[in-house]
Amino acid sequence: MAEDLSIVQGTKEEKYKSVIPQIKALVEGEPDLVANLANIVAALMEQFGWLWIGFYLVKENQLVLAPFQGPVACTRIRKGKGVCGTSWEKAQTIIVPDVEKFPGHIACSSKSRSEIVVPIIRDGKVMGVLDVDSEALAAFNEIDKQFLEEIVDCIIFE
Ligand code: SME
After folding, report:
1. Does some domain include residue 54?
2. From ligand 1's centre to the CA of 62, what distance in Å?
3. N or C, fewer C-beta in 10 Å, the chain?
4. Domain of 131: which CATH number?
5. Which run of H or of E encompasses 44?
6. Residue 34: what pLDDT?
7. Ligand 1 centre from 75 Cα, in Å?
8. 108 lines ligand 1 (CB under 6 A)
9. What's the average pLDDT block by block, 10 residues per block, for the chain (158 residues)?
């Protein structure tokens, strides 16, 4: 599939419900990990217009920057460091309503005010994380957690 993404107005839930089947169609039948991660972040950025969205993948016991959309970002994050490294260490989604109140937050962009990080878990192991940043305070909640976790579940690791 390679055609224009259909973008909707409406509630957060309506936007996820529109974009998720399109993401599934984009990744279906494509085995290449980088191609799929690139299309997932492009589709989400086009629908939501967040400040930054991207993947970090675990490589040699660090998180290393992978496909993203938005301003340039830090390339490597150690386990337990920042929101991403904490999500990796705890193997759980972390919602940060105000990044200034998260001890050890790594500021890749001074414009970022809130953030959500979702781990990608396969066979009990964290393979990477999906990180989303917003210029608005408290931009993310349980709805984002639910749908972003569904999105990372469709990623196929060879
Ligand atoms: N804020 C993240 C670092 C990655 S950037 O936001 C793209 C963190 O604290 O882990």
Report:
1. yes
2. 14
3. C
4. 3.30.450.40
5. helix 33-48
6. 97
7. 10
8. yes
9. 85 98 94 97 98 98 98 97 98 98 93 97 97 98 98 91
Angle at 22 between CA 66 and CA 88, to 5 degrees: 35
CA angle 90/91/93 to nearest 5° reads: 95
Global confidence as pTM:
0.97
Is 5 a member of any domain?
Answer: no
- What is Dmax (Cα atoms) for the chain? 42
E strand or H helix at 135: none
CB of 77 shorter than 6 A to ligand 1: yes
Domain contains 4: no
Q: Which domain holds residue 19?
A: 12-153
Taking the centre of ligand 1 as the mean of its atom positions, its distance from the CA of residue 83, in whole angstroms, is 6
Q: How far is Cα 132 from Cα 69, in angstroms, rounded to an integer?
A: 10
| Alpha-carbon span 83 to 68, nearest angstrom | 17
